[in-house]
Known about the structure:
Radius of gyration: 17 Å
Strand content: 15-25%
Shape: globular
Low-confidence stretches: none
Number of strands: 7
Order of helices and strands: EHEHEHEHEHHEHHHE
Strand order of the largest sheet: 3-2-1-4-5-6-7
Structural class: alpha/beta
Amino acid sequence: MNLIMNKVIVITGGGRGIGAATALLAGKQDYAVCVNYLHNRAAADSVVEAIERGGGKAIAVAADIAIEAEVRRLFQTVDQTLGTVTALVNNAGILESQARLEDMDAARLNRIFATNITGCFLCAREAVRRMSTRHGGKGGAIVNVSSGASRLGSPGEYVDYAASKGAVDTLTIGLSKEVATEGIRVNAVRPGFIYTEIHASGGEPGRVDRVKEFVPMKRGGQAAEVANAILWLLSEEASYSTGTFIDVTGGK
């Protein structure tokens, strides 16, 4: 299959939630889309099919971003089928059951950090190697999906997840400066309480409805609202924005 395109985007964790909404919007904006997923092939294929029905180009690629060899394979697959990546959305992230720090073991911490931190770094590395003018690339943009939790800490629930997103914030700042003269912009969005399936993996599917009264706008957010911010940061409209953050948190 050869679908070589001018605008090529890799979206990790692109089969569901914010990732899927971002993939669908990117497809409408003439990106060739790589929908990365871990286990749920049916969900990723559904996103690809929706993009193709709209006249766009997309592929689904299974890869565990916590594993370096799989990240390499992910980007090599994109090279061969869609062309050189011009945009990366580091969206894949995991959390585990709500718990206090005193009840977390090292295995849990390592799982969270391997995906949410190491995976984000590895995908950014592969994108930079392809985008940077230092390596003969033509530039590009990276958007990291952080979380409002990086500012709030998620006490009593997910301090490990919140800490991992704090690392993503720091990566965003540092990498943006590192590649600022190499044609690459690096920014982040920090979603707040968004209606996605991630809350079920934390043991409370209805979490957004429980906490929305603490949000100034008194409602949870939709994945599409986060996707709009991501695509703006990737666009030329944000051409002078790098190392910056958009909080999509309803004022929280």
